[in-house]
Write a sequence for this structure.
């Protein structure tokens, strides 16, 4: 069964530990701007909301379809999305295509960055004190719904401005 | 490559608009980071005669070496300046997101110098540093300002701290706040920011903080998180912040002080939490998330933890939790320290009760204990300097002088700083407050004497007391080497207990970790843990002794800065209000209170432990040289 990181936004306290754990694990540095999971925080009138976004490992992935250089692929249905670093030009078409903004650009290496499930043991999950992040197993029916739910949160909470997209906009 | 540190100190001069970057490395070994580095820059950069609101005063923000990593609770920003409250060191720490972001932008410390001609805000985006016009934002509160700044920068993710109307008007109890309720509230740093015409600071960073041994560091963090989760108080803290514990604590403190009042037992923080909690909110990398967030229709929204619940209820004899919430939200919006406000109102109420002032002195308000009519308008009055608020806004000692008629005898302050009204002045607490560089400091919570004093008050007789405190005495012997430290009747060992608390706080403040991760509330982070993680992060061995030595160096320098500002042993005192405050069941119990002679004795002990001169309270040249600070000794003319 293909796996993915399931997100419960309602309990997230916005500590951003997942972001730094992700970049620390992959790049040896703490840097949310190079993380495959992003916590968007919003402060309004004294209140705070936090929304983690991470690749949902869609079966029919808009990012894969949008990539002009076939840099994004999935070895098999059970594998997480992988990025061919030779092919990726960080054009940003994938970040534009993902309906929920769950794929990002690493401006240091000029590559797309996407959750690889840390080879099967996602580091962010045990680091999440609020249990906002858990490991989920996808199924045919739930697949599309997950990404639609996250896309809905993006829209409803007006969170698009925070995603580094095409051309560093 | 420099591990754990961003590498630079950013200096921004608001007078001439010049921006400069210095390397942090010359400070790093000796002062570690955060508060340590801030303090060294303050000591070297602020002259003896500089007044707090002079352009020459510095306002510093510092993030320690662990800040920005996933180390639990490594979120702190240390804020520092010469203080308008103490006339000497001004220092307050805040949680939230500013410190980590400052490091992601490439800076460990930020130094603001000079004064802008007109209102400005500072925007830091990696190496793009801009001083921008804030004329259109001036006047707005700390909820509105971050939103306006983000709109102006077209960056919804910018981390913003700002001052409100209180800071703009140089109210000396003004705070600096994030839009999420994180505050540097104590010692008037918001007023210093206001004096520089600096409305807000916005930071956004995209750089990384390298870790020498990422795998081991990460594994260590996860193990530490597990041990935090297993700690006795953790589930309580995670579910209800400190609120459930604080609710019990207020009852115990008032029992010890014997100043309960009719109806106080009906105050229930937990009920308020249950009924109104909107959600839990926390800081960067924090597994506790101690903030209670409320959104109460028609009253206001915001986040709160710990002390303000008691400050604005018990301490003012106010039973109405909604009055607490209304006033607290105003404090947050206006950028005013809630504890100082509570202390000021309680003082006026006491003066009113004693007939020293009447409603004619307080804009027609009868300052009667618990009166909502008296409490509700005060946050606005002080923040906007309206009527009686204008008098209070320049500080309680100045207000007492103007009122006269013995008003100063009722002040509860140390070094000019208004104290927490519900802190019982047991001996360790009094000593800690007296010798603290910033006056009363909530970070000092001497546990061992506190619990034994409660046991003493409740004990049937001496024998049963001895039986009950045996375990605390055992602990005192183990921890500080003096059994009697846990005896509330004697001065023995109190200096050692104060040092224990100071060391814990200092090390946390240097590395950038919240003291809430430590034994302060029963969690497992201590000097050994911090040294281990520093070593993993830096890739070089770091002995715990080295870290402790650095914390002592910082403590000597803190004292040296106050000496440079003219403070001496005489200033290590507490106001009259502290004396004979413990009256369990209304009966004065002299043995658990303190006398002037006892305080002086404890100060002697403390100075001896520290290697400070008994006459002047200054660090001796010998001590300063031992810690590699001969230059500091020269500066002090030792």
């Amino acid at each position: 069964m293909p796996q993915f990181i399931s997100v419960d936004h309602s309990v997230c306290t916005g500590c951003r530990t997942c972001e730094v754990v992700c970049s620390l694990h992959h790049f040896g540095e703490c840097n949310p701007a190079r993380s495959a999971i992003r916590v968007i925080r919003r402060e309004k009138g004294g209140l705070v909301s936090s929304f983690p976004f991470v690749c949902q490992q869609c079966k029919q992935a808009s990012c894969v379809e949008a990539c002009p250089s076939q840099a994004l692929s999935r070895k098999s249905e059970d594998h997480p999305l992988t990025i061919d670093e030779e092919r990726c030009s960080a054009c940003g078409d994938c970040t534009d295509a993902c309906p929920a903004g769950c794929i990002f650009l690493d401006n240091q290496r000029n590559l797309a960055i996407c959750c690889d499930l840390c080879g099967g043991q996602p580091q962010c999950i045990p680091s999440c004190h609020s249990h906002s992040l858990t490991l989920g197993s996808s199924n045919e029916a739930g697949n599309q719904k997950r990404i639609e739910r996250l896309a809905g949160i993006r829209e409803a909470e007006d969170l698009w401005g925070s995603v580094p997209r095409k051309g560093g906009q | 490559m420099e591990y754990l540190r961003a590498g630079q100190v950013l200096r921004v001069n608001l007078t001439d608009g010049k921006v400069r970057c210095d390397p942090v490395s010359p400070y790093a070994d000796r002062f570690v980071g955060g508060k340590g580095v801030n303090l060294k820059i303050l000591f070297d950069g602020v002259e003896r005669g500089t007044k707090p609101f002079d352009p020459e005063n510095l306002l510093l923000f510092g993030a320690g070496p662990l800040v920005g990593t996933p180390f639990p609770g490594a979120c702190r920003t240390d804020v520092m300046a010469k203080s308008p409250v103490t006339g000497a060191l001004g220092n307050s720490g805040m949680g939230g997101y500013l410190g980590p972001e400052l490091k992601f932008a490439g800076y460990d410390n930020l130094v603001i110098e000079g004064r802008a001609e007109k209102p400005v805000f500072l925007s830091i985006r990696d190496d793009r540093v801009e001083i921008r016009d804030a004329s259109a934002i001036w006047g707005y509160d700390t909820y509105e300002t971050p939103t306006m700044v983000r709109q102006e920068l077209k960056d919804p993710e910018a981390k913003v701290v700002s001052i409100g109307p209180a800071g703009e008007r140089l109210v000396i109890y003004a705070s600096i706040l994030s839009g999420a309720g994180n505050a540097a509230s104590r010692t008037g740093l918001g007023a210093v920011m206001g004096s520089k015409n600096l409305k807000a600071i916005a930071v956004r960073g995209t750089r990384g903080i390298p870790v020498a041994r990422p795998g081991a560091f990460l594994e260590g963090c996860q193990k530490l998180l597990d041990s935090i989760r297993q700690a006795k108080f953790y589930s309580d803290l995670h579910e209800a912040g400190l609120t459930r514990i604080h609710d019990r604590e207020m009852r115990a403190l008032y029992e010890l002080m014997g100043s309960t009042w009719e109806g106080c037992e009906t105050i229930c923080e937990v009920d308020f939490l249950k009924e109104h909690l909107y959600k839990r909110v926390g800081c960067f990398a924090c597994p506790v998330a101690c903030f209670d967030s409320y959104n109460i229709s028609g009253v206001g929204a915001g986040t709160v933890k710990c002390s303000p619940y008691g400050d604005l209820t018990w301490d003012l004899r106010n039973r109405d939790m909604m009055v607490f919430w209304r006033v607290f939200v105003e404090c947050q919006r206006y950028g005013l320290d809630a504890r100082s406000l509570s202390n000021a109102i309680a003082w006026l109420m006491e003066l009113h009760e004693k007939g020293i002032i009447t409603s004619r002195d307080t804009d027609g308000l009868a300052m009667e204990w618990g009166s909502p009519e008296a409490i509700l308008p005060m946050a606005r009055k002080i923040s906007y300097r309206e009527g009686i608020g204008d008098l209070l806004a320049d500080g309680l000692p100045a207000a007492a002088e103007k009122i006269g008629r013995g008003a100063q005898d009722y002040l509860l302050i140390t070094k000019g700083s208004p104290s927490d009204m519900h802190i019982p002045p047991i001996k360790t607490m009094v000593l800690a407050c007296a010798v603290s560089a910033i006056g009363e400091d909530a970070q000092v919570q001497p546990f061992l004497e506190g619990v034994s004093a409660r046991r003493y008050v409740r004990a049937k007789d001496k024998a049963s007391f001895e039986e009950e405190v045996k375990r605390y005495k055992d602990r005192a012997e183990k921890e500080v080497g003096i059994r009697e430290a846990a005896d509330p009747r004697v001065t023995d060992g109190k200096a050692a207990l104060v040092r224990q608390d100071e060391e814990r706080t200092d090390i946390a403040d240097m590395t950038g970790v919240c003291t809430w991760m430590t034994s302060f509330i029963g969690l497992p982070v201590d000097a050994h843990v911090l040294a281990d993680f520093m070593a993993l992060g830096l890739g070089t061995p770091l002995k715990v002794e080295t870290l402790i030595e650095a914390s002592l160096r910082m403590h000597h320098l803190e004292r040296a800065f106050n000496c440079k500002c003219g403070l001496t042993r005489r200033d290590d005192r507490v106001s009259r209000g502290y004396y004979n405050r413990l009256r369990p069941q209304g009966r004065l119990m002299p043995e658990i209170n303190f006398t002037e002679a006892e305080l002086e004795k404890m100060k002697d002990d403390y100075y001896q432990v520290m290697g400070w001169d008994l006459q002047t309270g200054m660090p001796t040249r010998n001590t300063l040289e031992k810690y590699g600070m001969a230059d500091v000794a020269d500066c002090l003319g030792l």
